[in-house]
Amino acid sequence: ENAKAYFENQDSLFDKANQIHTGDRTENLIVMASRSHFDSETAAMLELNKDKIGELINAGSSLKGCYIAEGKADVHYRFGNFTKEWDTAAMQAVCEEAGAVFLRGDGAPMLYNRTDVKNQLGYIILNKIENKFKLQ
Fold it and tell me: Across the beta sheet with 75-78, what order do the strands follow?
């Protein structure tokens, strides 16, 4: 009985009103940072862009993209080649479906099925492209 009711109401799950979407913030940005991979490059980037940042949230890797996709955060930069294709592929799909921008660390599109599976240049997730940070 409960299963029947569940499946009868599934159409509403796919309504636009029920879809997650990124936030519209362009000031006082909520920035996601890594608990275990906070490095000098990240610290320098945060200092350089401190006038745009309202809050810094530390969270595990799997949550960063979800927070941005859901509108609870706005920016995440990951430097270095610590992640691989399979670490970012699903996160990119979720983020982009919610309206976020997901790029390689150099600002180019993230590509997959590469010979080298490491994300050598890191990656960037933004709620809006205009929130891209200065790096130097």
Answer: 53-59, 29-34, 75-78, 123-126, 101-104
Which segments of the chain does DSSP mark as H helices, in order?
Answer: 2-8, 40-48, 61-70, 85-97
With 0.70 as the threshold, say if the pTM is over it. yes
Q: Where are the beta strands (DSSP E) in the chain?
A: 29-34, 53-59, 75-78, 101-104, 123-126
Q: Encode pLDDT of 93-117 as tens digits.
A: 999 999 999 999 999 999 999 999 9
Residue 78 forms beta bridges with which residues? 123
**Phi, psi (deg, nearest 5) at residue 6:** -60, -50
* Contact indicator for 101, 128 with CB cutoff of 8 Å: yes
Residue carrying structure tokens 């949230």: 57
Return d(Cα 5, Cα 7) in angstroms, integer.
6
